[in-house]
Amino acid sequence: MDRQPKPEFFHILRTQQFDRAILDELCDLTTAIRKFAKTREGLNYLRGLLAHKRAMLYFTQPSTRTFLSFNNACQILGIQTSEIRDASTSSEVKGESLLDSLRTFSSYVDVVVMRTKEEGLAESAAELFDHIKRRVPIVNAGSGRDQHPTQALLDIYTLERSFKEMGGIDGKTIGMMGDLRRGRTVRSLCYLMKNYRNMRLVFIAPEQFQMEDDIKIHLQHHGVEFHETKDLNSALPELDAIYITRIQDEYDKSGESKGVDLGKFKFGTEHLKMMKPHGVIMHPLPRREEIHTDVDIDPRAKYWRQERNGMWMRVAIFVKQFKMDHLIMHGHLLD
Ligand code: NCD
Questions:
Q1: 66 lines ligand 1 (CB under 6 A)
Q2: What does the domain layout of the chain look like in residue ranges?
Q3: What is the CATH number of domain 15-148+310-330?
Q4: CATH 2.60.120.10 for the 149-307 domain, yes or no
Q5: Do residues 155 and 284 touch, judged by C-beta distance below 8 A?
Q6: Could you point out which of 112, 153, 208, 237 has its C-alpha 20 to 30 Å from the C-alpha of 29?
Q7: What CA–CA distance (Å, rounded) separates 234 from 196?
Q8: What is the mean pLDDT of residues 238-252?
């Protein structure tokens, strides 16, 4: 059979780069890694897998989960880490350009994971590394309002697992609620929808926070059905999953979020009965008031599991990036 070579899984910059094959592969790899991690022997094996690699965690925007899950993913694989979490402690304060700083990291480490408020910086860094022929992959761990590709991957994994008994993600209706305009998590997830069959999206947001045109044009181009509404209650019964996000007011220019009435865009226990019995409730976290804490005990609330899936998906990302996946997928430990 004439097989197309698979696109290389090297820099991780934006979700448009992923096709269905790689998404399925990463989900299977994540599940296999979790099986390894259930035994002491498996954990010891994982800890040796990338013990010859070093990672730079460059996180100059606030982060709890993404930072900790990448850091723990490194620990699971034996990867040594260095970190910068505050640009004011780096030579940027001496006037060094961000790209020069990033070039410096590439002198010391084998992979750079970066979260920045700037959009497009991960792409520029990847271009620079390619140009100077440094084989150091860049992983975008959140680039301003634009993209959060590794979050989208863990979201796909969480959805696939939640719908395991129901044919997976294909054919499902997914609602997204909150700050869709500036939410990089929902934006990145939207770009992945073209890889699944017969998807429908429902964007639930006040007008000021509705999804941007770039995403809508992309969805139209790929024939992914979507519609917009301000009415959570009428949308809920048709949803297989709802993905809720917080208002991203750190990107406000002059406090404009304060003027928006968010009262109708909150999920409480009263909404549980409107959802399908197999419905899935997700949130990238951190949450504020958009999901009541009483919802947490409902088995359909998957956000804490989603958070934990993030660590395992990030282990899988490194394993795949450093081409160790065959050792996991065909390793004797799974027999
Ligand atoms: C998200 C982010 O940073 O974009 N958090 C995360 O990575 N889990 C969502 C958010 O901050 O609202």
A1: yes
A2: 15-148+310-330, 149-307
A3: 3.40.50.1370
A4: no
A5: yes
A6: 112
A7: 25
A8: 97
